[in-house]
Design brief:
19 strands, 8-stranded mixed beta sheet, FAD/NAD-bd_sf, flavin adenine dinucleotide binding, about 375 residues, Gly_oxidase_ThiO, binds glycine
Length: about 375
C-alpha cells in the first residue's frame, strides 16, 4: 500500500555522518526534520576518520584546505555535544621511504609553512624516537601536530542518538517539484512533503532523478581498507602514519585502520587481492610490525567525487534544495562545517568567503 504523504520543514536524503549532522543542527534550530536513509552504510562505514586537513593539504588544493581547517577547528566543540563519538587527539607522521618521497615531503613542507601551518620536520632518528615501530630505512618524517582522528562508526552512532527527529529507512528516487521549486522527495513507495530538501546521499546522488540543469555531478572512487587488531593491545603506533598512497590510523583499543586504495571502477565494491597486497606491502615498508596484526575486516567503499574534487555545499539551481555532497576523501573531516553551512543555507544565508568554492551552482548544466 502506498505510504501517505507527510509534511516536514526539512527532508534530509542520506543518513550518514553528514546527513545526520545537518539534520541534528537543523532540529536544534527548531525545524521539523526527517532523515531518509537507504539502510545501506555509505562511505562513512569504510572511512578511517583522519581529521587531517594539513597532512592532506596538497598542491593546488588551497580551497579544500581552508574548508578543512574551518571544520577541524570546530571538531572539538562539535564532539563535546555528542555522547562518545570516538574522537582522539593524535597527530600525524607523514613518512618518506626514499629520496624521491623525501624531496616531495620537503616541497610539501615549504608549502605548508608558507600557509602558516604547524609542521615539524623530523630526521629519521627523531621520528623513530616518537614512533619506535617505524622502519630504520625511512628517510624523513613530518609531524603534523594539529591533526586528529575520529572513529566514523562511533560518530554516526552518536549522531543517531543526538538527532531526535524522524529517521526513516527507504530509497529516495527523486524530488517532487512545482516548476523549479522543490516540494519534497519521492520514494519507491510514496512521497514526503517538505519545505526544503537537503541532499546528503554521497555517491547515491548519481542515481537520483534530478533535472539535468540542477544536478551535481558525482562519480564513485573506490577505496579498499583493512581493519586490523593487535592481540597485544594498543601501542604499536600512537599517531596516524601516512606514506605515499597509504595510511595507518590507530584506535585507542589496539585496533587500526589501514587504507586506502584509489580506484576508478564504477560501482564495484569488491575487495581484491591486489588492493590488499599493495596496502600491506606499502605500509609494512614503513611499519614492519603491522604484519603481526590480525585482520578483522576487509571492506571497500565509494567516495563521492566531483570533477574538481571539491564538495558541493549550499543552495543549488532549484529553490528549496540544499546540497551537502561530493566530499570525496574528506566527508568525515568536513562534517561539522558542512552541517553549519547547510543550516545557514536553509535559513537563506549565503556561503562565507572561505566556502564559495564549494558553491553547487558551479556545476549548473554540467553532465556527470
Ligand atoms: N580520507 C582518506 C581516504 O579517502 O582514503
Amino acid at each position: 500500500m502506498p505510504v501517505q504523504s507527510e509534511s516536514f520543514d526539512v527532508a534530509v536524503v542520506g543518513g550518514g555522518a553528514i546527513g545526520l549532522a545537518c539534520a541534528w543542527r537543523a532540529s536544534q534550530r527548531g525545524a521539523r526534520v526527517v532523515v531518509i536513509d537507504s539502510g545501506e552504510p555509505g562511505a562513512w562505514n569504510v572511512a578511517a576518520g583522519m581529521l587531517a586537513p594539513v597532512s592532506e593539504a596538497d598542491f593546488g588544493e588551497r580551497e579544500l584546505l581552508q574548508l578543512g581547517l574551518q571544520s577541524s577547528m570546530r571538531y572539538g566543540a562539535f564532539c563535546a555535544e555528542l555522547d562518545d563519538p570516538g574522537y582522539s587527539s593524535i597527530s600525524t607522521l607523514v613518512v618518506a621511504r626514499d629520496r624521491d618521497e623525501a624531496e616531495e615531503l620537503d616541497r610539501l613542507l615549504a608549502l605548508q609553512r608558507e600557509l602558516g601551518l604547524l609542521v615539524d620536520r623530523l630526521r629519521p632518528s627523531q621520528a623513530r624516537s616518537c614512533e619506535p615501530a617505524l622502519a630504520p630505512t625511512i628517510r624523513l618524517a613530518l609531524n603534523v601536530i594539529s591533526d586528529n582522528a575520529i572513529d566514523p562508526r562511533k560518530l554516526v552512532a552518536a549522531l543517531r542518538r543526538a538527532f531526535t527527529g524522524e529517521q526513516r529507512t527507504g530509497r529516495v528516487t527523486g524530488l517532487t517539484r512545482q516548476g523549479d521549486r522543490v516540494t519534497g522527495v519521492t520514494l519507491e513507495d510514496g512521497t514526503i512533503v517538505a519545505d526544503q530538501v537537503v541532499i546528503a546521499a554521497g555517491v547515491d546522488v548519481a542515481c537520483l532523478d534530478i533535472p539535468e540543469h540542477a544536478r551535481v555531478p558525482v562519480r564513485p572512487v573506490k577505496g579498499q581498507v583493512l581493519r586490523l587488531r593487535d592481540p597485544n593491545g594498543p601501542g604499536l603506533v600512537s599517531r596516524t602514519i601516512r606514506g605515499h598512497g597509504v595510511y595507518l590510523v590507530p584506535r585507542v583499543d589496539g585496533r587500526y585502520v589501514l587504507g586506502a586504495t584509489m580506484e576508478e571502477r564504477g560501482w564495484d565494491t569488491t575487495p581484491t587481492v591486489g588492493g590488499v597486497y599493495e596496502l600491506l606491502r606499502d605500509m609494512s615498508e614503513i611499519v614492519p610490525g603491522i604484519l603481526e596484526l590480525e585482520i578483522e575486516e576487509i571492506i571497500a567503499g565509494l567516495r563521492p567525487a566531483t570533477p574538481d574534487n571539491l564538495p558541493a555545499i549550499g543552495r543549488g539551481a532549484l529553490e528549496g534544495l540544499v546540497w551537502a555532497t561530493g566530499h570525496y576523501r574528506n566527508g568525515i573531516l568536513l562534517t561539522p562545517i558542512t552541517a553549519e553551512l547547510v543550516v545557514d543555507a536553509l535559513a537563506g544565508e549565503s556561503l562565507p568567503t572561505y566556502a564559495v568554492a564549494a558553491d553547487p551552482r558551479r556545476f549548473e548544466g554540467v553532465l556527470a
